[in-house]
Amino acid sequence: MFSTNFFLSPFQRFVKLQSSSGILLLATTIIALVWANSAIGDSYLAFWNYEIGFVSDNFELRKPLLLWVNDGLMAIFFFLIGLEIKREFVIGELNSTKKVMFPLFGALGGIIIPVAFYFVLNQNPETLKGWGIPMATDIAFSLAILNVLGNRVPLSLKVFLTAFAIVDDLAAVLVIAVFYSGSLNLAMLGAAMAVLAFIYFLSYRGIYSKALIVVWGLIVWLLFLKGGLHPTLAGILMAFAVPVRNKISTNEFTEQLEGIIHNIKETRVVDGAVLSKSQLQLLNEMEGWSEKYQSPIQSFENILHNWVAFLVIPIFALANAGVVFGGTGNLDMALVFTIIVSLILGKSLGVTLVVLMGEKLKLITIPLDIKRIHIVGVSFLAGIGFTMAIFIASLAFSDSPEYIDSAKIGILIGSFISAIIGFLILRFSSKKTKLNETT
């Protein structure tokens, strides 16, 4: 059965965090749309196109603010995604064949069918390269909606949504690496791979520090940028170098704490008094042992989650969601329609049909508290493709502003409709389930 027992409290905190982030993400999206369509709408484009950086005789790193957000800040988002992927595959809900099959089937359906819809509906060769747009699910928005429903939906459904969204993100990252990177500079990429190999070797040997990851991560990011691979991929690859396991065992940790506590008692701490140097040293030792005992990957996640949820993603939405609706002369309405249908029908049919087919063939086991109507409802929520979809659109149509705007409008409309349908299905089906259980 699909287990939800693994660190349940941390997962519930993660859901609440992502839900709050989803609300902030909606707010910044509205602000961007209002700003872009207001009387000062020209300032929106002028602000995000303002170039900053530095130039020398031998080196140049100068970009518009929009690209600093999409290439720079989003690398932090992808680093966090990489940490979550590694944790889930090593010790989480994807760490065994039995656990991974249920969300894997959902993810496969949510990837293959929407892409198939896009290929079938698209009639313009110039917009064909946007096929990766409807692949991924925005975990912040989708979990925010599930959290609004509260205990009307089982926690295992939230775990399922999170797990298959992570698999979706992994697939999207691979697609970005293969299909949406520029011309390659093999020398730069070779240097980046050498640095990554060195960092992986140090991690394997137990040599690790946050500062090391940050410094070398910046170097890999720059080498990827100059080498033609999208620099956000550096975030993913650096995350895989962060160890999951702690440095000391529980027995060693508790023994050290017991010794420190004993020494603190012996020093006769006076309540309300200023601590002595020896007492401060004991507290520092306790913090040091706590740092060693905590999983490095968990420590990094704890640091980054709030920054990503409440700063990086909202700034990304503010920078990318400002589409001008005044007039559709420059929009490709066929592209808008294709993306809307691919998100709404492609995701809902893909996730539902593939999961139910897997259950019918006894390839997966669905938890008893997840009903088929839950699968249908959450499959519509999977059509909320906001963050990753807009990111892929900006890469696919980087040289075609009119296609970027068209794609964004399709993503916003498709995500909004998917969210409404998914919410209504889960809201009213949960109510009927409760009534049936009481009769």
Q: How far apart lie the N and C ends? A: 28 Å
Biggest sheet architecture: 2 strands, antiparallel
Enter the CATH topology name of the domain at 8-60 and 96-180 and 319-438: Na+/H+ antiporter like fold
Low-confidence regions: 1-9, 432-439
Instruction: From the alpha carbons, calculate the radius of gyration and give it in angstroms.
Output: 24 Å
Total helices: the number is 16
Q: What does this protein look like?
A:
This protein has 439 residues and is mainly alpha-helical. Helix content is 72%, strand content 2%. Among the domains are: 8-60 and 96-180 and 319-438, Na+/H+ antiporter like fold; 250-290. The protein contains 16 helices and 2 strands. Strands 1-2 form a two-stranded antiparallel ribbon. Strand 1 and strand 2 form a beta hairpin.
Task: Summarize this structure as a short list of keywords or feature phrases.
about 450 residues, mainly alpha, Na+/H+ antiporter like fold, two-stranded antiparallel ribbon, 2 strands, about 0% strand, disordered N terminus, disordered C terminus
Quick description:
The protein has 439 residues and is an all-alpha fold. Helices cover 72% and strands 2% of the residues.
List the helices and strands and how they pair.
Blueprint: H1 8-36, H2 41-48, E1 51-55, E2 60-64, H3 65-90, H4 97-121, H5 139-149, H6 155-179, H7 186-204, H8 210-227, H9 232-239, H10 250-266, H11 277-293, H12 296-320, H13 333-360, H14 372-381, H15 386-396, H16 401-438
Antiparallel strand pairs: 1-2
Helix pairs in contact: 1-2, 1-5, 1-12, 3-6, 3-9, 3-12, 4-6, 4-13, 5-6, 5-16, 7-8, 8-9, 10-11, 13-14, 13-16, 14-16, 15-16
